[in-house]
Design a protein that fits this description.
Elements lengths: L1 H42 L20 H5 L1 H11 L6 H23 L2 H46 L4 H11 L4 H13 L4 H11 L4 H16 L3 H25 L1 H24 L1 H9 L1 H24 L5
């Protein structure tokens, strides 16, 4: 009877958590769809396909191929993380870590299901490592973009071409932006149009809205004419304002992020203390099927809660 009530309580908790998650992502998906529809109306066409009376093509949503292809998405993550590994090499290391943790958990707890949970934990840790490197490089890229645009403005005012200004900007910044700008400059030196090279740069970093706006502005002005320097100055001012906003956002959410770290660390700390002070009780939790089920459900809810907290304290780009 006690096991029945325990199963009912655990199932109810999981169901309520999944219901809350589903409602949250449903509302967020509707908000994103409204934003995309508003962008399409501003751009003057369905899906941002064309401008009236011209041949200018502007995509409303970049990186669509990466979103629909898991392999391309994983390669994009590796590239943005600055890793020199191939997709096969990265997957090999991830599964090697998963296999090691599966073996350790199986031998430690003498249970195959817990071993499988350890293997999944290994895959999650490998993904977390690459994702953290990618997010760090994305932040650095966005911070360096304002400096690069300022260097390009100075070069354009000095009479240099857009291609030469890209090369000058690459010398003023560091990785990860410097190698990307150097690559664009080398591609233009080999004969590729600068707007095409910039579009490929945009597709390699689809998270950055400022980069998308810059590439679209270059594409429009190269075909219709206009003052690119004024556009870049406006974008630079916007990037500086965005940097100030992010500093303020991090200050305002510092308490929430610290609370999230404490909440994520408390279950692990309690488990370690339990293992040191009362190992026989922990053995009962790990050695019985009911305890193992509760432990696996707790680990899953802990992972979902950690993901949810990280998303709540991070603004959309």
């Amino acid at each position: 009877m006690d096991e029945l009530f325990l199963w009912i309580g655990a199932s109810t908790a999981v169901a309520l958590f999944c219901l809350a998650q589903g409602g949250f992502w449903l509302l967020r998906g509707r908000q994103h769809r409204r934003e995309e529809q508003l962008k399409q109306r501003i751009r003057g066409g369905q899906g941002g396909q064309a401008l009236q009376g011209g041949k200018i093509q502007i995509r409303s949503k970049l990186g669509q191929q990466a979103a629909g292809n898991v392999a391309v998405s994983l390669r994009l993550t590796l590239q943005q993380a600055g890793s020199n590994l191939t997709l096969a090499g990265a997957l090999g290391r991830a599964f090697a870590l998963a296999g090691f943790m599966l073996l350790v958990f199986t031998l430690l707890f003498q249970d195959v299901l817990i071993g499988l949970g350890g293997g999944l934990l290994g895959l999650f840790v490998a993904h977390l490592i690459f994702a953290s490197r990618r997010d760090k490089n994305v932040r650095l890229f966005e911070e360096q973009l304002a400096t690069a645009l300022e260097a390009m403005v100075f070069a354009l005012r000095a009479g240099r071409s857009l291609e030469e200004s890209l090369h000058s900007a690459a010398e003023e910044v560091e990785a990860p932006l410097a190698p990307e700008l150097s690559r664009v400059y080398q591609e233009t030196a080999l004969g590729r149009p600068v707007e095409v090279a910039l579009e490929q740069l945009r597709d390699r970093w689809p998270q950055l809205r400022a980069l998308r706006a810059f590439v679209e502005a270059v594409g429009v002005l190269k075909r219709t004419g206009g003052n690119l320097v004024e556009v870049m100055q406006t974008m630079t001012a916007g990037l500086h304002a965005q940097a100030l906003f992010e500093v303020r956002h991090r200050a305002l959410t510092s308490e929430g992020r610290m609370s999230g770290r404490i909440l994520m660390g408390l279950p692990i700390f309690a488990l370690v203390v339990q293992a040191l002070l009362a190992p026989e009780q922990l053995a009962q939790l790990v050695g019985t099927p009911t305890g193992q089920t509760v432990l696996m459900a707790s680990a899953g809810l802990w992972a979902l809660g950690a993901f949810w907290i990280s998303r709540l304290t991070r603004p959309d780009r």
